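Narrative summary of target 7.
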Amino acid sequence: MKVIEKNNKKLIRSWSMYDWANSAYNLVITSTIFPAYYTAITQTEEQGDVVNFFGIKVVNTALSNFTLAGAYLLMALVLPFVSSYVDVRGKKKQAMMYFTYLGALSCMGLFFFKLETLEISMILFALAAMGYIGGVLFNNSYLPEIATVDQQDRVSAQGFAFGYIGCVTLQIICLIFVLKPDWFGITDASFGPRLSFLLVGLWWAGFSLIPFRALPNNEGSVIKASKNMFRTVVIEYKIVWRKISKIASIRNFLPAYFFYSAGVQTVMIVAAAFGAKELKMESSKLIITILLIQLVAIAGAYLMSLLSKKLGNIPVLMLVVCVWVGICFSAFYIQTETAFYMLAAVVGLVMGGIQSLSRSTYSKFLPRTIKDTASFFSFYDVTEKIAIVVGLIAFGVIEQLTHNIRYSALSLSVFFIIGLLLLVRVLKFNKTVDA
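Modeled conformation, tokenized:
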């Protein structure tokens, strides 16, 4: 195994390129073109916004939310054991590659998504999410290995900045095909969005080769000698669980992260659907708005990194969560496109900051001498994924019951308020100077 030189600029740039590669999925599939395309083709004169999914009638946006929730829940159940296996066998990079190609190929398969292929397309939609989740976990676990504690806020911010720039670059390419199909002689209105899904898969798989060449594998666990691999994995999982349960800073931080992450991730997923349903905004306007959010998020990531040096990570997170509470209440009342654009700008600013700072904060709480970083980060990622499951289900159930997406948006404020209160506890008991 190659020894990692911490704070190596070339290695950090290569690591950041994974954010560049996979963020295209997050923007095009989760936030912009896919939701807009999905909403458009599943809205019919006969059925309205209700679709038939394997014989079950369900609201279209609720179906997409439930599909993502199912993918996240499944990954939350298996990731701790997958990461334990990876730490035991020293196969972190191979696992990262496996999930990357699962996600990328699933995105390519969405090129064939039409209303008559709804069922298989939603399965591919779920598999793409699972590939993204797994890849992010193992990429995150490299952070404490490539950067010293004093540099982790900056390096995390750089990774997210690369991600936002990368996804915006591909989004612009996709927009040309979606908004100007006549330039290429395209007459099928669905071809532009479907081509975008294919390009996401190619972009994701292609640019991931850069970090795959540069990042080394992890060192196998000292308990790998056991012949029963399942038993060994369980032992590894229990060892990491015991270590985490004894670290007060992590034990206090993860519940807070769970609640405010449920709000953040759900907002990011449903923003386009909200604008389309409540404000009747055209798909092109929604896509451009969310595109601009990514650009604002670059500034947000670096701004929060700078503020954390002066105020500390937890106080800055508390400030940002307060802003998110205001966003939820504002979403309930907005009536115009102008107000939506203004709110979107605020979302972009705090979106980049809270994601970047949360990752580096957790990394700082890890023991300096650990080698099984994948297993440790699996608890961070599982916390986020279960939070998304809860957030999406709550959002979907409220919309299904009320048929009013505004009430769903307002309900997310509860997650942020609870997260804020738990962050107060983290600040009170945290003794780690760096955070």
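The domain at 9-429 is CATH 1.20.1250.20 (Growth Hormone; Chain: A;).
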